[in-house]
Amino acid sequence: MKLTNFIDRLKEVNSLSKHEQLVLGIIDAINSGHLKVGHQLPSINIMVDEVGFARKTIVKAYEELKGKGLIESKKTKGYFVISDKTERYLKIALILYSFQRFQQEFYNSLRKQFGDSVQIDVFFHHNNDDVFETIYANISGKYGMYIVAPIESERSRRLLGTLAPEKLLIVDRFIDLGNTYSYVTQEFEKSTYDNLVHLKHKIKKYKRLVLFFRNDRDYPAGILRSFRNFCSDHGLPFDVLEQYEPDSVAKDRLYLFINDSDLWSLLKDCRNNDFRIGKDLGVLSFNDHIVKEIISGGITTISTDFKEMARDTATNIRNLSGLKTIVPTTLIDRGSL
Prior knowledge:
This protein has helices at 3-8, 18-32, 44-51, 55-67, 101-114, 129-139, 154-160, 189-198, 200-203, 221-233, 260-272, 290-294, 306-318; strands spanning 71-74, 78-81, 90-96, 118-124, 145-148, 168-172, 182-185, 208-212, 238-241, 253-257, 282-286, 300-304, 324-326, 329-332.
């Protein structure tokens, strides 16, 4: 039985478009065993001649099958079947900064939203343009959807701009790729400033504010700007240090953490020195996690809801809605100030 026979018998189904007839016909051929992993599909030109559909219709069908992770294109050689897992609905490339706790929460929630109908492959760029470019080169054209936490750089923006808007969803950090692209992101600058103002009456009891911030990491620049503006606007002495040095904890300071490793180190020093958090010194952390509900009586956080971000992401992709969403940032006051 020829491949075209699988497609021809779907032509009588009036509810199917031509490109859907092609996609479902090829899937039927894979399910029947006519096409096996490693088999080569007919070239686009041959399919045009044998099926009678327009070239762009053939291309669209092959691209959809690539997106489902069923076929791949090899340069100068053609299209080949790479999977017989036809029950999968979509193959997604998820590109994150690193597997930090809050990004793990985002991934786990996203995985739960889609269930087994979607394949999600995870990559980490570690806020490094060279790593991101290598990842992009290796996966470009092999996925039906790309969910990307972008690097805030011109190189990252330029590469992402080469993806079709309907195949790209920006998450976590916003970069402007134009009105045709969708995103589900946080907002850092205004929300951080507003929450610091809300805590002002507690903050003012401390003699100095200390933010740990590294420019060579994936720390959001909006947090640094809002922190400096808040301290300047309210006449508060402050320091911005790259990292917490063990045994440097001091009373009458308010410490603000983006990196959890720095936070754990300070909490250990507080325990060793019998310093009371919220009394002798204050602690404020970004990016909430269940551990911060429990440790040291609870740590006050400024954070978005990463489970909500995952739900909005899944809805956006599932409904092809092209939404532009800013996930709210909230203050969770647990008394550590």
